[in-house]
Amino acid sequence: MKCFILLLLSISLHAASAAMHSLRYVYTATSGMPDFPEFVTVGLVNGEPISYYDSIIRRETPRQDWMKEAVDPDYWNRNTQTSIGDEQTFKANIDVAKQRFNQTGGVHVYQNMYGCEWDDEAGVTEGFDQYGYDGEDFLAFDLKTLKWIAPTPQAVITKLKWDNNMAQIQQDKHYLTQTCIEWLKKYLDYGKSTLMRTVPPSVSLLQKTPSSPVTCHATGFYPSGVMVSWQKDGQDHHEDVEYGETLQNDDGTFQKSSHLTVTPEEWKNNKYQCVVQVTGVKEDFIKVLTESEIKTNWGNTNIASDVGSNSSHNTAPKE
């Protein structure tokens, strides 16, 4: 299990394919960070934030227009009360964690991420409930065994306590396998014009100097599932290729780059091309590496790349 990290306000946990959809809630409690809310919750559907609460505003608020329009005011009132209760629980839990690790001052972070995934083609569902402390895994619920996994000794006390609470375990199982899936499907229907859309990418070949790697940059696409790969003479090419992360643009679309290190002599004597494939878009987008296709700032001493950058258990589950 890979640990989830702080600053999840800009989290991008997107489905890998158009068939896979997800509903996640991320709770973050902090200690020793005066300029950051002590408690924050974010709800996300397919990686898109739909709801937000923090200990300063103390109000559950929509993060999508379609969410605001789809649900009644009582929805936000109910989830506000839930988050207020969770805020108190998480503030207490971070104090308990600090005691377990023999810590007093300093910056500390306690997190919970729970939710579900649904493959609308295969019909397969999956639920998850994970806790982290100071950037490391702390606890995780195993739906197959209905037991909690404690990767660190400090979490064993909590694991044993939660494993013996069968009523809570059955409640968690029902939420992760049924209630969560039902709400995920509702949210997908509410926001289908946004969440189910497909937008093709704009693809460019970029290079800072003649000796720099050639960057294939795809941007403006949706959903986030994408492959940016290189071919040499019609065959997949992986040598001297570096793949960048998928980043979110300010307008909700995505961008991704792949960097190829190759000499001008090599690409002029062979056919190199970048192939971009976006989930849900049948067409492949291909750029052949030729001198006329490369966008560059050669001769500019103040070179700027065109490639953009990303401009406790006791938790009551959200609706």
UniProtKB/TrEMBL annotation:
Which UniProt keyword terms apply here?
A: Glycoprotein, Signal
Is this entry keyworded Manganese? Answer: no
The UniProt gene name for this protein comes to: LOC106588402
InterPro entries registered for this protein in UniProt: Ig-like_dom, Ig-like_dom_sf, Ig-like_fold, Ig_C1-set, MHC_class-I_related, MHC_I-like_Ag-recog, MHC_I-like_Ag-recog_sf, MHC_I/II-like_Ag-recog
| UniProt cross-references to CDD domains, sorted A to Z | IgC1_MHC_I_alpha3
Family to which the UniProt record says this protein belongs: Belongs to the MHC class I family.
- Ig-like domain span: 201-277
Region Disordered, annotated ranges: 299-319
| Native source organism of the sequence | Salmo salar (Atlantic salmon)
Indicate what this protein is called per its UniProt record. Major histocompatibility complex class I-related gene protein isoform X2
- SUPFAM superfamilies recorded for this chain? Immunoglobulin, MHC antigen-recognition domain
Q: Which Pfam families does the UniProt entry name for this protein?
A: C1-set, MHC_I
Keyword Glycoprotein tagged: yes
Q: Where is the signal peptide?
A: 1-18
